[in-house]
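Sequence, structure tokens passed on for absentees:
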Amino acid sequence: MNHKSVLLIMGSTRAGRICPIITEWVARIGRSCTDFSYELVDLSQWPLPMDDEPGIPAAGGYIQPHTQAWSRKVASADAVVFVTPQYNWGYPATLKNAIDHLYKEWNGKPAAIITYGGHGGGKCAEQLRQVAGAVKMQLTSATPAITLSSDVIKNGSPIDPDVDFKTYVESVEQALHQLATFMV
């Protein structure tokens, strides 16, 4: 049995968000196509105030208990998957802040990016790819981008990922299989 662990980091903390539903769907796909454990990480449960460490993350030496806990959480995982919406062509500030809180914990960490939005999230993924590269993560080339219907975006209509996103299963599997190649 493989004891490799993957953190699925939810990029959205907005009220009424669908990120937990999509992230759980990604976890189900991961559990069905790999033998890794998947843990959902909800950034709304990780209070990481902006710029409250006196030193820069690259220097380490975190003094804030919440940063130390975040450091342990990220360091404990063998890989991460960012599941994030695209907001105004970018990714949420909460996710950027969570990444920027650390440095060495991301170095060499295998990572995949899965986005969603009215246009799928390609621009968001491009920006996140640049930041992940800056902290030296190993990124998969597969970057699934799930397009949400106008009804979901404008009216908050419910989603059933198993039905609504079935055409994206193969691309999610591809990203997770690529992630696995970094974890051998």
